[in-house]
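Sanity check

After download, print the first record. It should look like this:
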Amino acid sequence: MKKISCGTWAFSFGPYADHPVGVEEVVRRLSAAGYDGVEICGFPPHVTLDGYAARESRRELVRLLADHHLEVSGYSADHTSVNLAAPGNQDRYLDLFRRNLEMCADLGSPMIRVDTVAAPGSLSGEEYPEAFERIAGIWRQASEIASGAGVLVAWEFEPGFVFNKPSEIVAMHDQVGHPNFKVIFDSSHAYLCAVAGLRQQPPKETLAGGVNQLLKKLDGRIGHIHLIDTDGTLYGDETSTHLPFGQGVIDFKALAPPMLALPGVDWWCVDLCFCEDAWDLVESSLAFVKGLLGQETAA
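Expected structure tokens:
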């Protein structure tokens, strides 16, 4: 049976940036709503390397989660201080990656999220293919390191970062070429990348079959799921706008069956990032996803 989590970043990013909800309160809220787990945000002010530097603080969080019957579906690590697309940053990135991997081990997280860090348009035409090869090589090493800790490396592609064309997403996975490296399939990002084709390195690339065709192209490459609706526009001119389920353009009834058939994907994570009413959408979002999973009728 699939398990359902919710990303804690929804209550510290975007509309919540000026009044973030603390991790403990988020844990209590998600537990009371009936989620199976949480996906932990490694960005300030949540579970950062500095804020949770002491092992005891990490053990306290593990106890809090256990007391509220919640597992950890993944750790969204903060690697933004090191641009791995730039030359000469391999050792710095891998050092930071190891520190975040240690956090995963301490929290019992089975997955560590990564992204390409660099923004679209930040690379020249000459730098673009070089950066692609560089990132793939670094992630290949990171995947090998993480395999020793039993933690999956999962890449979240999105319009906010380079290499977001459908062909590039497939090619990156193939170029990394490590069994411990998979892709996070985020429904909103998939729409922006496969249908809208926003913030791509020219020429623009879309798929006639949209989100479902991208899912099929990534068959065997997906290790984790993020779910949320979208209207196909950008949030803050950067990344995918996230909307409550049913308020956007994604056909989840058509998307759910092939997602359910994905091998080895245990967690479906509700991603309420940038939703103004995220706190009030906790229960209805869980009910919607349970409906997709056939666990109960969606609200």
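If your output differs, re-run the checksum step. Summary of this record's structure: The CA atoms of residues 82 and 92 lie 7 Å apart.
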